[in-house]
Amino acid sequence: MNSADKRAQRPAVIRQTRNSRSAQQSYEGLDPGLEKRKKQPDLARDQDLSQRSVCGPASEAKLSQASPAAFRPTSAPKRPSVAKGCSGLASVAQLMRLGRCKNVVVVAGAGISTASGIPDFRTPGTGLYANLDAYNIPYPEAVFNVDYFSDNPQPFFSLAKALYPGSHRPNFIHYFIRTMHHKGLLLRMYTQNIDGLEKACGIPDDKLVEAHGSFATASCHLCYTPYPPEEAKHAIMNDGVPTCTFCTATVKPDVVFFGEDLPQKYFLHTQDFPKADLLIIMGTSLQIEPFASLVNTVRSTVPRLLLNRHTVGQFERVPLRRGDHVELGDLENTVRAFAEMLGWKDEVEELMKRQEQEVCSS
Q1: Are the C-beta atoms of 35 and 22 separated by less than 8 Å?
Q2: Which residues of 168-197 are buried (b: 16+ CB within 10 A; e: fewer)?
Q3: What is the mean pLDDT of each run of 10 residues along the chain (362 residues)?
Q4: Whether the model pTM is above 0.70
Q5: Dist CA 219 CA 250 (whole Å)
Q6: Which residues are tagged catalytic?
Q7: Helix or strand or coil: residue 203?
């Protein structure tokens, strides 16, 4: 049975494709400066939000040691839920310690992997998109445009070499999320990342949705005939181009490109987000749809915690929605502070040390 016959026999499935708010037109004729102009952070706004919801280390330490009375609700402000000078981390940590958050959904992007040595995509000068300048791509997201890939696969393969699993190890943030699973609190983690570090740290497959695919499998980008993933990796890592044995088109890892269908597992969000009692968003620009809109599908009473370098998406609003908390700054440092407030820091570090020693000895 050929590949076309197999596809014809597939059962009907829900379809939703990946797209970018800044890449909804063809790569032909796009203003190359548009993306850069859109991505300039509103520093004044970030500073204002930071002053209202992020404390310095000394203030955070005091909050983490405060008595429960320090977190007792008052007659209280309708907006935002965290008063000026208080830490959103402390407020959410208190909720978790009180057992109010038992179905936590984590939404993550490339920022959680920068502490592992993998640049994020959009940081000017150092991001992965900036490192593709040598290929003269018409705009950054063209590297994930399937039509552009068909014409010129080398920019994506150059990016793939930096992201293939095995070159980097998980960091404290990944193990923090795994610890959350061990404590029975993680409902699901939704990641945009294709670096495989969530699996590498031991987050179980049934707790993980890799919304933009992974390098675990490979197939022809044209006819979808499966291709041995190790052979694809060997060709890409040695500057070769893997070729489909059926139609001779270029093979790529099963990373979701713009316009391609998202994996069926992504649609677990229709069950998970209405059930969530806490949403943690970390290390993402919330630029890629439909992933970015997931954060707006939890119930209005559910607290949302953004851990990021800059405000993004709905968190750019001033004032914040009631129940929203923003912590801006270095993500790994922020997560370490969060773990300390929860009393998990030593446990996360021990888990990380033990797993990494096992990897080194194997």
Answers
A1: yes
A2: bbbbbbbbbbbbbbeeebbbbbbbbbbbbb
A3: 46 56 43 39 44 39 39 37 58 96 96 88 63 75 90 90 85 98 98 94 97 95 96 95 96 93 95 98 92 95 95 89 94 97 97 87 69
A4: yes
A5: 9
A6: 212
A7: coil
